Amino acid sequence: MSDGPFLKVIAEADALIGMGATVFQRFTCLACKARQTMSTPNIFYTTGQFSEAIAMGDLSRRLHLGRGDEIGQLCEALDCMAEDLEKRSEMAGAIASGDLTQQSDLLSDYDVLGMSLQSLAQGLNDIIGQINQAAGRFTDRSRQVSDSSQALSQGATEQAAVTGNLV
Predict the structure, then answer these.
(1) Residue of 118, 116, 64, 54 lying closest to 86 (CA atoms)
(2) Which residues form the domain of 144?
(3) How far apart are CA 114 and CA 106, in angstroms?
(4) Nearest to 105, CA basis, from 97, 96, 113
(5) pLDDT in tens, 99-138
């Protein structure tokens, strides 16, 4: 018996295994692409839910998708937006609690919220300064009234003493 037909069968089996591996590899790639495509609507649903939560004031949510495609970039930008809104919300709360030392860094020339927070803190600082000035003037006027009252009282006492001596 010669090895020729046996080697031929082994060669054909190797060729079939190689083709099978190629088909399996291509099928796996197609399955991965199909899975990625099929999961995209789920990502849009999740992103929509996230956006609605932000619109309703829940600034604690994040997407954390970690994808490298355009959808991943969009989700990362939305996460950054939510994080910045949360920080600014905390800043506004601190200002409302009386901490007027808060500083808002502007993200761009179009950062309307950042500019508003800066204006709010500056305006409140100006008002506090005006109140302090008014309180200082009030204190000065109160001292003047007190001094005048003491002078009148002393004058009345002296006049009563003089009147008592005359009677």
Answers:
(1) 54
(2) 43-166
(3) 5
(4) 113
(5) 888 888 888 899 888 888 888 888 888 888 899 899 899 8
The token pair at 18 is: 């190689």
104 secondary structure, DSSP code: -
H helices within 56-111, ranges in order? 70-96
If one counts every other C-beta atom within 10 angstroms of the C-beta of residue 144, the result is 10
Tokens describing residue 48? 């929509």
Q: Is residue 107 part of a domain?
A: yes
Query: What is the tens place of the pLDDT at every residue in 49-82?
Result: 888 888 888 889 898 888 788 888 888 988 998 8
Confirm whether 16 is domain-assigned.
Answer: no
Helices (H), the chain: 4-55, 70-96, 112-166
Which residue matches tokens 């829940």? 58
In a domain, 34, yes or no: no
Structure tokens at 114: 């950042």
CB-based contacts of 94, cutoff 8 Å, min separation 6:
102
